[in-house]
Design goal:
The protein is mainly alpha-helical and 119 residues long. The chain contains 2 helices and 2 strands.
């Protein structure tokens, strides 16, 4: 008489029901260990701890021409943060230089008249 061989309930139908959950748990545990070991080693933490807030103001007004520093870039003392357009300042400087030249010419003319009267 032929009998099917089973060993403590590990028949063909029962084996799948017991082995599959164990296999799934072993794969999940292995994946968790892999994530903890390999992902933790490659993780870079980026953040800001106790940031310092500084208010920055320009001595003159103007439009922004260039901003060589990006947000969150480290900066040093004296490093330019922005470059303003100086069209108005250049125009004011040219006006002042022209006024100075006019006053020098007027002074020269006054000195000539003074020499003429004193002789």
């Amino acid at each position: 008489m032929a009998r099917s061989i089973t060993w403590k309930g590990w028949g063909i139908g029962n084996g799948r029901r017991r082995v599959l959950p164990i296999l799934v748990w072993l794969i999940a545990a292995g994946a968790s260990v892999w994530l903890l070991v390999y992902r933790a080693a490659r993780t870079d933490l980026v953040g800001i701890a106790n940031p310092e807030r500084r208010d920055v103001a320009a001595l003159t007004d103007g439009r922004l021409r260039l901003m060589p520093v990006a947000l969150f870039d480290p900066v040093t003392a004296g490093q330019p943060l922005v470059v303003l357009e100086d069209d108005r300042l250049q125009a004011a400087l040219a006006t002042a230089a022209a006024e100075a030249a006019r006053l020098r010419a007027e002074l020269a003319a006054a000195e000539i008249r003074l020499e003429h009267f004193t002789k």
